[in-house]
């Protein structure tokens, strides 16, 4: 597989695990179910910067063995890498998420 193929696969895997994709483009039920299955202790998720807060909730739960960064020192979860793209996407989506936060409020888990 070429370098571009590897990069494309890595990007697609990162986006499927992206907190913003899991919160903004998924239903509230799917988001709540994902956080419940990760056994987080979060009770609500704000809509503004929801991807970043989603990652924080995941990190607040028990360690996810499948989400370790390959080749990195033990204990570095993949969610730490996702903070940058989630922060960028959350910033780009601020006009939308602010309006949803104002009309629907935080996502209650």
Number of strands: 2
The computed structural class is mainly alpha
Question: Which stretches of 5+ consecutive residues score pLDDT under 50?
Answer: none
What does the radius of gyration come to? Answer: 14 Å
Q: Mind describing the biggest β-sheet?
A: 2 strands, antiparallel
Signal peptide: 1-26
InterPro entries: DUF1375
Pfam families: DUF1375
Keywords: Lipoprotein, Signal
Describe what you observe in this structure.
The protein is mostly helical and 109 residues long. It has one domain. The protein has helices at residues 3-16, 19-24, 28-37, 50-60, 78-92, 94-104; strands at 44-45, 107-108. The chain has a two-stranded antiparallel ribbon with strand order 1-2. Helix 4 packs antiparallel against helix 5 (78-92). The radius of gyration is 14 Å and the shape is globular. The chain starts with a helix and ends with a strand. The mean pLDDT is 81.
